[in-house]
């Protein structure tokens, strides 16, 4: 049980700063500011579920998929960073108009809730890389099937806790609309776009540095 508790805390503490649902709530709010409270709640739940599934897959099968295709983690970070930077640049350039276009798309299907709200904004390349790295770790003291199953359950509970945190942070992000108003939302969109652009460039640069380090 001690090892299971450590696994739960390791997964939650390792992914929480990267996923950063508290910091992502203003971005979620800015991109869904034109939606009703019901639609926003639905989107928050769908993002949480999508994020859980994505992190679960990355944790348990991500490393095997990368090995199968011959892809390294730095390459994943570069590609994901470019995706984040591209979306941030578009939002920074188009402003509220781009956000309104996204809002109309997000209102319809789960696929739209997946991109870009789930990936790369909530569960980005950094989160996927951390989840894959955590999944690649094999505890030396866990040898039997019961031990491995217990640790897998603990890791899954850690991911579920992250998903619930995402849901609650996004679910109550709409309370900020009353305080900010239309002009405040526009400022938040611009600021969030600039932050996303910087995050994307930082992720890309980190992946490039890791890749060149591996090359040498």
Question: Keywords, please?
Answer:
216 residues, mainly alpha, 9 helices, 87% helix
Element layout with pairings:
Layout: H1 2-19, H2 21-31, H3 37-69, H4 73-94, H5 96-106, H6 110-122, H7 125-136, H8 145-171, H9 175-215
Task: Characterize the structure shown.
The chain is an all-alpha fold and 216 residues long. It is 87% helix and 0% strand. The termini are far apart.
Note the run of SSEs as H and E: HHHHHHHHH
- Which structural class matches the secondary elements? mainly alpha
Number of strands: 0
Distance between the termini: 42 Å
Query: How big a fraction of the residues is strand?
Result: under 5%
For the residues shown, what is the average pLDDT? 78
Q: What sort of overall outline do the alpha carbons produce when their principal axes are compared?
A: globular
Q: Name the helicity range.
A: over 70%
Helix count equals 9
Which spans of ≥5 residues are poorly predicted at pLDDT below 50?
98-111
Give a short summary of the structure:
The protein has helices at 2-19, 21-31, 37-69, 73-94, 96-106, 110-122, 125-136, 145-171, 175-215. By secondary structure, it is mainly alpha-helical.
